[in-house]
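Troubleshooting entry. The earlier prediction with magnesium ion gave an output that would not parse, so I re-checked the input for stray whitespace and re-submitted. Clean input:
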Amino acid sequence: MAFFSSSTRQIPQAAAVPEHVAVIMDGNGRWAKKRFLPRFAGHAKGVELVREMVRACLERNIRYLTLFAFSSENWRRPQEEVTLLMQLFVKALEQEVEKLDRNGIRLRVIGDLSRFDQSLQGLIRDAEQKTAGNTKLDLTIAANYGGRWDIIQGVNRMIAACPEKQDDWSEADLEPFLSMAFAPEPDLFIRTGGEERISNFLLWQLAYTELYFTETLWPAFDTAEFDKAILSYQHRERRFGRTSEQLPGASDA
Ligand code: IPE
Ligand code: IPE
Ligand code: MG
């Protein structure tokens, strides 16, 4: 068979459990509003659900969990909400890192961190360093992250790393410079809160990911809801361009 160049890095083995799950945690504000609570209460509850999700990933041997916590577009929110979200982020880092470390979890934060104040940047650096040796679960928080930003910062760094090269750049040249270079591409993408869009999340990496959308608001997305998403994933046929008959285990009948 002739070799051809494919845009997906390699065809992953179809596994019962997704290796990498990426989540847009949406619906905190609406969850709070339904309960006549301030939006902030929804964000606070949302952090609890992150804890539950992390635990569920450990129990299910999911290797990578990537969570969209704050998009590059979320600065457009009222100043008060942005400030509260930052405070919540700081509090979570201060309170949780020790526990993450004890559980063998490696924490990374991806996004343009230069926009955060120095103390938050320091907390992030410390947390990443402290957990750098852990290998049970890679937990990545996307903060001030945008998929287009990621591609452009990657292109800039790629070109800077090889100043003598003029053209003929390939996908494989760029990939080491993208924020998620350390992980395989997500197998399963989940968006809670009913919206069916990507909102500038991992644009490059989601090229062949199975997408799952649910009306459930993030603060209500418990382990049972997560298992529904995994079950839906398990019923997908991941063909990566091939026909059903070509898949491993397909019968000739
Ligand atoms: C997601 O919930 C959390 C963040 C974007 C930080 P939202 O705050 O977007 O909640 P809704 O969409 O308004 O309900
Ligand atoms: C997307 O949520 C980003 C996060 C969950 C952090 P939004 O609620 O801000 O998304 P849009 O702008 O409504 O699509
Ligand atoms: Mg929203």
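This one parsed fine. Residues 24-26, 68-71, 73-74, 195, 197, 199 surround IPE (ligand 2) (CB under 6 Å).
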